[in-house]
Amino acid sequence: MKKTHIPKLDDFLGGGVPKGSSLLFSAVPGVECEAFGYQILNGFMEDGNKGFIFTNVAEPSNITYEFSRYGWDLETRIKQGEAFFIDGASSFIGMPPDGKYIINNHEDVYEMVKKAIKDVEDGVGIINNLSTLIDYNDPDEIIPLIKGWNEEASKRGTVLVYLFTEWDYKPDLIESIRECFDCVVSLNSIEERVIIGQGFMVTSASWTKPQTHMVLFFIMQPGGVKIYIPKILVTGPYNAGKSSFVKAISQKSVSVDRMALEKFPTTIAMDIGHLDHGGFVADIFGTPGQERFDLMLDILAKEAVGAFILIDSSAPQTFARAKEMINKTHSEAIPNIIVANKQDLEGALSPEQIRQKMNLNDKIPILPTVVTAKTDVKQALDTLLKHLYG
Amino acid sequence: MIKTTKSGIPGFDELTSTDEFPGGIPLSRTTLIYGPPKTGKTIFANQFTYDGLENKLPCLYITADQGIKQLTMSMMEFNWFLQSYIESGDIYIIDGISQLGGVKLDDSVNYKTTTIGNPAELMIKVGIGSRYVYRKCPDFRSVLDSTTTMFAFNPEQMVLRVLNAYIRRNNEAGGAGLMTYTEGSTTDKTEQQLLSLFDNLIRMDGDTITIKSEYNQSENPDNFKSVYSIGEKGIVVDH
Questions:
Q1: Given an 8 Å threshold on Cβ–Cβ distance, is A57 in contact with B119?
Q2: How many CB atoms lie within 10 A of CB A171?
Q3: Cβ B157–A32 below 8 Å, yes or no?
Q4: Hey, how many other C-beta atoms are within 10 angstroms of the C-beta on A266?
């Protein structure tokens, strides 16, 4: 097995990728993809293997510079004969070509890459980018081309990594492409009007039953692919049940409370919980509800990827405050749902009455719950996760 | 009703205003300005950008024809001074051309370089840039000048795919998008496909400006047609 050197990915794939296997990193437009290929090449070279990059999107000098931004020295590796380029970009944009193999005609790509695969036996080849290849070739030719390269790679023990952006191709073409690979890793976005997070997920692997959890990542320069535990916010007015909700959805949690009116605990700083639900891992941050602690809202809300807005369904007089807290935590800009708590109390309003009173648009889900009895808490969690990951 | 933002072009908002439509450039939509070379398309885009900046509306600006230095200088010809807005972070520039000349400029928070021949990377930067300007103001502006250069460095079908993704990204974020294109720089088929991506089209031929909009229609097509001139303060549309 060969290590990809992408955090978590090797664990998901049962330790790494077999020699001669083919991997597709398939990204929705706007999600960072190149760093995965470059990090794998760098890792392979650190392990003493050879590698190449076929590029049809940027000149080799730009990619070498990009490597240096990640803190990886590709230039020296090339000088030492550990890596080389197949330059399929420069000639087409009027720049001087630079690489072991130079592409002047698109028809030459197939044979040149085959030669390169042979040159780096037991090593790795990065194809950047498969999408551009599709539009330079007849779509009918792309599947035989991929299969031909993958067969050669399998014979030579070379791992082939393809970087692919899922533009608006026909779904059956995307499906046919995915079927050509031993392993497909999907790179997706978390969006709420704009991209607020990126995640990768193993969709298939022929040699193992992969773990298919979504892992959130960001790209560091220097550093490369780094994974992180996402943060989910729980906010809402005083006494809406936020701390109880954090406890109900978390495996572990702690609250910074004090006794209010010497009768019941109220949160004065924050609640922190850790969630592990169906393979999804997150830190939960609950805000205090009292206005005098509003100065903390901005800090607690920073970098959250989703939000639960807790309201007391039987206390419509607090709805204005709930809306104020949505604004103060910028929760409208991230996937969010309203948890309509205390549905067991007399006078509790229905979700539709709440929507009307709070003047919320139809897109925001409102989930009726009784948090203390854990009624429909799981449903609230599933709804937000579905909203986050589609 | 469709929300709009001021174009910043004297006479344009009045020309496009109807009972149902407030005039100007639509938000949550992307508009294409097209026409023969040297008819003022870039000036229109820059005037729109600068008007936004002066009114605290941030802009995501993708420059594919001119590097950042040339862009700043060409705007200065109209007394539109970009530098202070670059420093304040009100404009987020994606420079797709400077790297092609072999120049290695350092990125900053609101200035990113990319290669115009790498559409996947461009879209990543559009994604990050959209988030940046959206957080400053949801009624942001978004300009791409010009698509013509993208067609010159990439397969035409690929550029159409990228523009489609870009339009979707801008429209979902709610920005007022504007792109420019020089007529005749692609095949007729591609040009037709390109025009069909937009529901708001502005054609400038050097004398006349014509607006064709799918959601702002009139029984008399001449209602959205007028002459324009380019002076030292930019474009002025007769109305």
A1: yes
A2: 9
A3: no
A4: 18
Q: Is the peptide bond before A26 cis (omega within 30 degrees of 0)?
A: no
At A390 the pLDDT is 63
Q: Which of B103, B122, B53, B106 is nearest to A132 (CA)?
A: B122
Q: Give the position of tokens 């294409």.
A: B32
Cα(A77)–Cα(A309) distance, integer angstroms: 52
* Mean pLDDT, all residues of chain A: 92
Number of inter-chain CB pairs under 8 A, A vs B = 90
- In three-state secondary structure terms, A102 is strand
User: Of A155, A88, A75, whose CA–CA distance to A121 is shortest?
Assistant: A155
User: b/e string for A118-136 if b means 16 or more Cβ within 10 A?
Assistant: ebbeebbbbbbbbbbbbbb
Q: Which residues of B touch A57 (CB under 8 A)?
A: 115, 117-121
Residue B131 has its nearest CB partner, among A34, A89, A196, at A196
Interchain contact A209–B (C-beta under 8 A): no
Closest residue in chain B to residue A89, using alpha carbons only: B117
Q: How far apart are CA B184 and CA B181, in angstroms?
A: 9
Nearest residue of A to residue B149 by CA position?
Answer: A93
Q: Which amino acid, A230? A: P
- Euclidean distance between CA atoms B166 and B169, whole angstroms: 5
Span of A179-193, A292-306, B37-51 with lowest mean pLDDT: A292-306
Q: Classify residue B110 as left (phi > 0), alpha (psi -120 to 50) or beta.
A: alpha
pLDDT tens across A96-128, in order? 999 999 999 999 999 999 999 999 999 999 999
In the predicted structure, residue B107 carries a pLDDT above the cut 80: yes
Chain B residues touching residue A30 (CB < 8 angstroms): 123-124, 126-127, 165, 169
The model's pTM: 0.88
Enter the tokens of residue A186: 């999907």
Tell me, yes or no, if A225 comes closer than 8 A to chain B by beta carbon: no
